[in-house]
Amino acid sequence: MDKPTQTFPGGITSLIPQYQKRRALLTGADLPPLDVDFAPLKATPLPPQELPRPEGLTRVEKKRHMLLGELAGHSELALLHGMLISHLRKHTYPDGAPALFLRLWDEEQAWLLASLPTRWLISAVITFAEHGPTEADRNLAARMNMLFSLMKIYEAERAFSGKAPQTPFRIQDRNKSPLPMGMKDFSVLQGDLEANLLAPLWRDAEHAPATGHLTRHLLEILNTDDGTVFRRFALMREKAAKAP
Fold it and tell me: Is the dihedral of CA 144, 130, 40, 25 positive or negative?
């Protein structure tokens, strides 16, 4: 029998070097001390990004330069948050980074939720998957990481369909080929997969002291976003219900 063709030649093990490369240590300037005063940082606007990027920067300085462009119009505290996440997503990071990240979210959660772009709130909850203070926090954050990672993969493929994220697929165009790996089909019109996926996250947020409010905040944003697979399914159900 012929050996099955692999999506990843060499197996999933072959992905590990790529995974490790993206988590290499950021070298360069240190983070501020654990007792840094957050108030002045909130009040200090970020300087403009210098273009072109100067030569000879350390990896940390390159990351700061990139974030100055992405976070233009925000404050030094938003940049500190971004730099903490950048460090903590690596295998090795400054000793005080986890404690400073947790202190920032403990003391400035309301400001962070109100001020940061959603992309950085998602990055924050993903960071809690490894650095949450309790097992409940780490477990919930890891599940949120999986949710948003799979949404990103799915929406990236959807973009190649040519359809806008707000445009649902037509029910009559459904391809009835079996799902991969022998999985049972999902009934878009009557299935409860969305409830089984999202409701436990909302429920378990009650028991996660550091990430619970952030999780529910993100789920509320997901619920109001008109460009997700969940909204498209809702529109398909709505149209089917109105059909004669």
Answer: negative
Which residues make Cβ contacts (< 8 Å) with residue 147, sequence separation at least 6? 197, 201
Sign of CA dihedral 112, 118, 120, 126: positive
Q: Give the closest residue to 92 by CA, choosing from 35, 130, 64.
A: 130
DSSP conformation letters of 17-70: HHHHHTTPPPPSSPPPPTT--HHHHHHSBPPPPPSSPPSS--HHHHHHHHHHHH
Of the listed ranges 12-21, 66-75, 173-182, the one predicted with least confidence: 12-21
User: What is the Cα–Cα distance from 228 to 117, expressed in whole angstroms?
Assistant: 17
Extended beta strands in the chain, E state: none
Strand spans (E) along 72-160:
none
Mean pLDDT along residues 189-209: 94
First and final C-alpha spacing in the chain: 51
pLDDT of residue 21: 74
**Amino acid in position 118:** T
